[in-house]
Amino acid sequence: MKEILVHIGIGTEALAFLTGMVMFxxxxxxxxxxxxxxxxxxVCLELFCLFFYRVNNVWLxxxxxxxxxxxxxxxxxxxxxxxNRKTLLAFLVVFNTATAVTCFLGVQKFMVEPIxxxxxxxxxxxxxxxxxxxxxxxxxDAGLDEILRDLLFWxxxxxxxxxxxxxxxxxxxxxxxxxxxxxxxxxxVIFSAVLLKNxxxxxxxxxxxxxxxx
Amino acid sequence: xxxxxxxLLIISASATILIFCISLIVLFILFxxxxxTYLRQITQIRVEVQxxxxxxxxxxxxxxxxQILSTISVYSHGLIHNVPPEFKPKIKESQELIEKxxxxxxxxxxxxxxxxxxxxxxxxxxxxxxxxxxRLKFMTTDFRIVGDPYRLNEEAELTMLRILxxxxxxxxxxxxxxxxxxxxxxxxxELNIKAEDNGVGFVEKEIRGTGLINMKNRAKVIGAFIxxxxxPSRGTRLDLKYKNKLLKHGAN
Lengths: 214, 252
What we know:
With 214 residues, chain A is an all-alpha fold. Chain A has helices spanning 2-22, 24-27, 35-51, 58-79, 82-105, 116-139, 144-148, 151-166, 175-179, 183-207. Among the domains of chain B are: 52-112; 139-252, Histidine kinase-like ATPase, C-terminal domain (Heat Shock Protein 90), CATH 3.30.565.
């Protein structure tokens, strides 16, 4: 059952990537043109680890976490105003420095276990940054219809739901030790969050407009 | 702490954060909707005030300047019999200019008068505007109608006319265009208006004026589709679409 759900999760990620590629002309003039690159990377990594590199692959996902946050920071940077950019810059410096220092000092064992502190930090920072972005949208001249037709809104909504749901889960260091049999329940929560996130991405790709025209 | 308790704690923490975020999104949408309603009301009031001002100006032009020009015309007709013959050609020329001025002033007065526009409709009003450009040799124009014309509701027609007038003004003032093409395409479902000039064009992000925003806001008020397509040196094209909302009533 779990294996099937993993396949479904990766399947929706691949579907989101493919939809993103098909709908590419819609948003190729924006900075979101790099978003399918990220989706493609995630799908490739998941498939590679699922079929060819099933054990001791945690370091790859640790690298992905660091790249992912820096990538989204780049996306947010292009949309943020001056005030929010300062917050983003502070978050970037704190996250990268803290991750580098904790891995260097051995607090987080980068090669052999997930970098939990960084995971939690990333989730928290994402939630804050997305709320800041929504706040900025609220203060702009754009109407609700215009916002709902913007791909950025659906990407942020997907990420917000995913990170908000998984933030407390990422605080657990060892699922088996801490939760025993109950760990399966958390797997379903993460699966639902991934599914919802990818469905929101797909919906965003399909529903968004190249140029809003009332 | 028991494993079950930790599990429940994590699940409830996840649920709490998720509910918080969803509530935030719902609030965001509700707030945006309310804000939009207020903005629409403000735009509507602003448009009404503008229309009233234009109507007052139209009355002033018609009743004041128009009357003065008519009086001058009458005097000049009386004068022509009492002047030496060498002055007659000059007076005749002046009379012709006064007649021209009276025609233009009346046309301008009509173009500004809301009641007149509502009475004759969008199509006739645009025709008058375009003919005026031809008459004054501002630029060459091409006006075409495709399909069977029908009337839309008065407010929508008036708003669309104001959008087109703003577009024409921009074409005259900024575009340095020599040709303007206007197409009214009537289909049973909607009216598609295309207006295109061969002017200098623009890059939308670089536009500082309020003209484009005004046009978009006006279109928003009546729920019309509006799109500008322009590139430097390639002219500007306006697409304006409005659903035939009277179709349902007509069918009944």
